[in-house]
Amino acid sequence: MSELLNDNTKNDQAIPFRFTRLYVTLFVVLAVLLTGGQILTQWRLGTVQDELWIIRYTALQRHQSQQIVKQALQVTDINERANFDQNLSELRHVFTTFERYHLQSREGKVSDHNVTIPNSANVQVLYNEINPEFTAFQRSIRRLINLRSPDEVVQPDVQASLKLLLANEKPFLEEIDAIVRQHTGDLRNQLTRLESIELYLYIVSILVLLGIGVLIFRPATRRLKQTIAQLIEAEQQASIANKQLLSVNKSLSETRQKLFEATRLQYQQEMDEQKLRTSYLMAGQEDERKRLSRELHDGLGQMLTAIKLQIEGLEAGLKRAAQQGTSDLTAHSKNISNLKKLVTQTIQETRTISNNLMPTVLSDFGVIPAIKMLAENDRSETIDVTFESNLTADDPRLDKNVEIMLYRITQEAISNAVRHAHPSHIHIELIERQNYVHLIVSDDGRGFRPENQRSKLSHQTQDGRAPSQGLHNMQERAKLLNGKLKINSVPGKGTKVQVSIPYKMQSAHYDAN
Predict the structure, then answer these.
(1) pLDDT tens by residue, 322-365
(2) Beta-sheet pairing, 484-490 with 494-502
(3) Alpha carbon distance 378, 436 (integer Å)
(4) Handedness of CA 490, 493, 495, 498 (dihedral sign)
(5) What is the DSSP string of 106-167?
(6) Nearest to 470 by CA among 411, 513, 428, 512
(7) Which of 66, 109, 296, 433 is 20 to 30 Å apart from 72, CA to CA?
């Protein structure tokens, strides 16, 4: 079956090729015939036009010879003595033109129209026969045009020349007529041959057209009928297939609608998650503001209030001493010492708040010294905080955003561990491996179940924060830098927070302020 299909395919390809080759061949033959016939016709018409000029100028000699005889008679007429010079001048002009036309016609030329056609043998014989009469014309006219006065016309040689001219006039006219008739007969024969050639070309062209109709259009028409029948059958099959496609298209439309609805729901879910992440970030900012406000109010504010009270007490004591007239400052030394301690504590508290917001060591020296300082500040009698790293001070600085993110996640992880896990030891690791920087914060606290944190979002702790809000903050910070956050925790066995960030070591300018 496949071989039969292959044969049909080959035949379908070969038949149009054969038709095309045959059509092109016959069309080329027809074009060559028509072009050749047109070229031949135009060439023969040009030749006929040239021969007509030859015939015209040959026939013109008959009229010119009669003019010559007329002017010769007027020159030798005694009654035309008054017009002798004018008649003689016209005789010279007519004879010059007549002589030029006759000599050129012998060679088949018409110089006025740049025509040159060799005379046939019959024409050339007639020109040889007319040569004596033409010579007699030349001899007679040349004698007459050499006359200087009307008195010379009575001379015997002049009268003899006139008689010679008159004697050769009729034979010259008859032989010129014979030449014209011979030219006309030759031209008629050429036109007859041209008509025959045109007839043959016409017959061959008709045969070629018949060949095109029989060999090309007739099989093509038969083939076209078969093709139309196949197309009708294919149209019926296509109609059936179209109905099936409509059914499939309907199913696809329903599926596409379901997919669109699923996509919309997914997009809505992503938007909800984005809103949730944004709310977490905003909640984190609000918590940071609350913490900062609490530290300023409870710590720095109370210290400044105590300083104010100490200064007021010292001021009142100095006034009393001035009123009593005593200048002993020993009684006020205790107040001055307390005031000095309060100022020192205020300065230390201000530095602590400033470091919590943005430690200067992070901008000046990088993330490693900043995390070391964070570990030292969070170390206490009940909690041991340690830090290790395979990065050294000689390595290029990390990107500024990466350093801030690592510091904030470390800060958040330690804060979460201290507030919720109550560990005895917190270990911080910052290592570089395979173009990633890994931050690991692990503790030995109470731990939790990470999968249960979503159900605890609505429960608030003592400081007003949901237990997993800090984890979400860390996760959002990691996503901003294409990082990955992993949290492993088991109740009673501690928690391990790991952040992996693709990074590029680089030297960059950091604002020292």
Answers:
(1) 777 665 556 566 777 777 777 887 777 776 666 666 677 777 78
(2) antiparallel
(3) 27
(4) negative
(5) HTTEEGGGTEE-PPPHHHHHHHHHHHHHHHHHHHHHHHHHT--SGGGGGSHHHHHHHHHHHH
(6) 411
(7) 109
Handedness of CA 63, 65, 66, 70 (dihedral sign): positive
Write down the residue that tokens 């139309």 correspond to: 228
Distance of alpha carbon 287 from alpha carbon 412, whole angstroms: 12
Residue 129 has which token pair? Answer: 């026969």
The Cα–Cα gap between 480 and 438 comes to 16
State the DSSP string of 218-274.
HHHHHHHHHHHHHHHHHHHHHHHHHHHHHHHHHHHHHHHHHHHHHHHHHHHHHHHHH
d(CA 273, CA 275): 5
Q: How far apart are CA 9 and CA 382, in angstroms?
A: 91
Q: Which two tokens stand for residue 316?
A: 């009142």
> Cα separation of 29 and 424, whole Å?
109
Band of residue 442 on the pLDDT scale cut at 50, 70, 90:
very high
Dist CA 19 CA 25 (whole Å): 10
**Stated length of the chain:** 513
Q: What is the rounded distance in angstroms from the CA atom of residue 500 to the CA atom of residue 103?
A: 117
Give the single-character DSSP code of 330. G
Write the Ramachandran bin of 434: left for phi over 0, alpha for psi from -120 to 50, otherwise beta: left
pTM score: 0.40
Distance between start and end Cα atoms, the chain: 87
CA distance 424 to 413: 15
Q: Let me know: does 437 contact 399? Beta carbons within 8 Å.
A: no
Distant-in-sequence, close-in-space partners of 124: CB < 8 Å, separation ≥ 6: none
The three-state secondary structure class of 413 is helix
Rounded CA gap, 464 and 458, in Å? 11
pLDDT tens figures, 118-160 = 888 888 888 888 899 889 888 988 888 888 888 888 888 888 8
Question: What distance in Å separates the CA atoms of residue 165 and residue 270, rounded to the nearest whole number?
Answer: 128
